[in-house]
Amino acid sequence: MLKALSIETLKTKRTLVRQLIWLFPFLVAIVTFLLFAAAGYVAQSIINQWSCIWFPLFIALVIGLNDRHEKNSTEYKMILSSPDDLFSYELGRILHGSLQGLITSLVLVILICVLSFVTVTSVSVSSIVLAILGLWLVNLWQVPLYTWISRLTNMYVTVLIAAIGVFIGIEINEYAWGKIWPFTWSEIFPISLIKIKINGLPIANTSGLSNNYWTIGAALVLFVILSYLGARSFRNQVKKND
Predict the structure, then answer these.
(1) Contacts of 151 (CB under 8 A, 6+ apart)
(2) What percent of the chain has pLDDT over 90?
(3) Of 81, 90, 83, the residue nearest 241 (C-alpha)
(4) Are 60 and 161 in contact (CB under 8 A)?
(5) DSSP string, 6-46
(6) Can you give the pTM of this predicted structure?
(7) CA-to-CA distance for 196 and 202, rounded, in angstroms?
(8) What would the pLDDT profile of 221-232 be if each residue is shown by its tens digit?
(9) What distance in Å separates the CA atoms of residue 152 and residue 162, rounded to the nearest whole number?
(10) What is the pLDDT of residues 171-210, one digit of tens each?
């Protein structure tokens, strides 16, 4: 699995994916800063936008680009012809996508911390770090899902599914039963940390505000399940093609 991670990391060298990992959070932070600078809660707004829309779409886009690069270069022939266990190799590809999301999250942490020194913010640096890294964990289940979908279809289908999931999540997050939909986990997780509603309005009374840390545990369980199913699907797909 670690060998596959090393191989996949080398494949993305000097590709659009590497550039996107650094540029995407920068663009999100700058655009949100310009839009919400006058409101006085820039850091919270960046995290809110990141959790509701941009991070799930980013994961789908990066995973889709990884898959497109593989299909355009070897059509998975190099992987399929290798002596490595395909189940473990697929887990390595999932780990690679997970680390890409972590790097992007860390870049955003740095950007928001820098902006917090030049703008007024009502949340602590520790809350900012916890919110963004927590969002990485909460969205981790999407990596094996999109790795699986992209391999069977293409990047455009993957991004479309992510966009539909995000849209449905925004529409149903206010309902109690909406928590069943995993896309709502990313939207509701940071509320207690950044003290801002999903619609972007600050929360006046936070005394009775409950946290949603349970979403991390639920997301990790789903991540393990989808990783196993995705890796097993890849191994079985190859067997059928033999």
Answers:
(1) 67, 76, 234
(2) 54
(3) 81
(4) yes
(5) HHHHHHTTTSHHHHHHHHHHHHHHHHHHHHHTTTT-HHHHH
(6) 0.91
(7) 4
(8) 999 999 999 999
(9) 15
(10) 998 888 989 999 999 999 998 888 887 877 777 766 667 7
